[in-house]
Amino acid sequence: MAFIDRIGRKFMLLLGSIAMSIFLAAFSYIFLYDVGGFLPLLFMILFVASFAFSQGAVVWVLFAEMFPNNIRSRGVSIGSFSHWVFYSMLLFLFPVIKKSFKDNSGIGYIFAFFAVVTFLSFFFYKKYIVETKGKSLEELEKETVAG
């Protein structure tokens, strides 16, 4: 929490989305061109670190901060529920999509799609996420609901 408060949620999301896009694209390249060695492991570790630094931690803080006080508990519950539903759908659909390709290059296309979507999240965060660093919940409510 102290780290998130010091750096800022929006900056962490922006930085993380760019880093995750790069490592997902690199992972895609590995599967499309059958690159072996230590690179798959390196890119996977760097992706996981980028995710943990940004979306993996910041989303839970934003859930608690983005809703007005009178609906916060319901909003956090719905946000958490939808997060896990879409995560579950992704986990169940990945093998189905992979089976539709004849070889391992299919995984490369899947990761290329993930890279593009993650890159697009950068623009979503830039436009729609309000920086909450150093602001009280009451200040945020005034800023987002009234303004």
Task: Describe this entry's structure for a reader.
With 147 residues, this protein is mainly alpha-helical. It has one domain: Up-down Bundle (Growth Hormone, Chain: A). It is built from 7 helices and no strands.
Note the main attributes of this structure.
147 residues; Growth Hormone, Chain: A; single chain; mainly alpha
Radius of gyration, rounded?
18 Å
The number of distinct structural domains comes to 1
Proportion in β-strands: under 5%
CATH domain fold name = Growth Hormone, Chain: A
Main β sheet profile: none
Q: How many helices in DSSP terms? A: 7
Mean pLDDT across residues: 89
Ends apart, CA distance between termini? 27 Å
- Output the structural class: mainly alpha
Q: Specify the CATH homologous superfamily.
A: MFS general substrate transporter like domains
Summary of the model, kept short:
By secondary structure, this protein is mostly helical. The chain has helices spanning 2-7, 9-32, 39-53, 55-65, 72-99, 105-128, 137-146.
List the helices and strands and how they pair.
Elements (H helix, E strand, L loop, with lengths): L1 H6 L1 H24 L6 H15 L1 H11 L6 H28 L5 H24 L8 H10 L1
Helix pairs in contact: 2-3, 2-4, 2-6, 3-4, 4-5
